[in-house]
Amino acid sequence: MEKPSTPSSHSLASSITNSGPISIFAYCLSSILMTVTNKYVLSGFNFNMNFLLLSIQSIVCIVTIGSLKSLNIITYREFNRDEAKKWLPIVLLLVCMTYTSTWALKYLSIPVYTIFKNLTIILIAYGEVLWFGGKVTTMALSSFLLMVFSSVVAYYGDNAAAKTIDDQYAMYLGYFWMMTNCFSSAAFVLFMRKRIKLTNFKDFDTVYYNNLLSIPVLLVATFALEDWSSANLKKNFPLENGAAVFIAMIISGASTVAISYCSAWCVRVTSSTTYSMVGALNKLPIALSGLIFFDAAVNFWSVSSIFVGFAAGLVYAVAKQKQSKEAAQSLPTTNK
Known about the structure:
Oligomer: single chain
Number of strands: 0
Order of helices and strands: HHHHHHHHHHHHHH
Radius of gyration: 21 Å
Distance between the termini: 57 Å
Shape: globular
Strand content: under 5%
């Protein structure tokens, strides 16, 4: 016979689910976990079946959120074919974004990848100016200049660490994939924002449709475009640590769900402003994780670029906070 839960256990669970610091820590941990596990798979064993990696992550994500929904922990809307047809272009952009990110992360270190990812913010900001009537404040522009400067500094650090022609080739190939990822990421965010306004999707509605519709696209791509020969499968899943690679894929897929859940949790128990600040601050531990867990270049330029990029994200978060306050104050009030 199941024992009834005690008031103390209820109060403990309530204090955890309503704790701002715990939600922030969980969000940061899930972000670091996903980045590190992806880097482990992509760079640790010369993995070259990126579409397969993404399809496994999406399948794990769907299984995880389906389980959470059955336990009444989360909710999301039921599948609708008409909504799926309208959402499919967003999914194609998502596949493009995630695919290019895997190649960028394969060839670049985590610190350099994290720093250059900031450039996406600039593209999104000016895309919002063109499409949604947004504006770029002086402080936001200052943060953009810092982002560009941190990327230049990161390049010098990366170039200094490149000892051979092969190292330089891999570095520039990584930069190519990084640039394509920045543009595809910005397009994905802007188009998704426009579609969300039309469909009124909530957080887990978006997660559900993105991952469910991605699965057939990714499976077709992996079977059509990637090498499924026994020799290549042995290369990607070596006998001595193939299980470790597969487990890392599963953890990475589950961590995408964790990020979505922790994002909503953090916003609920703190505020959207705090969440944006956490997103800026989180870039520092993610970049440092690359120095701790992987053989990333450690020199004056590389370390300086991490802290300049961190400062750029912080300035941008403050600029968005000020912009939100000014927008709220400018709203017309009605007399009762």
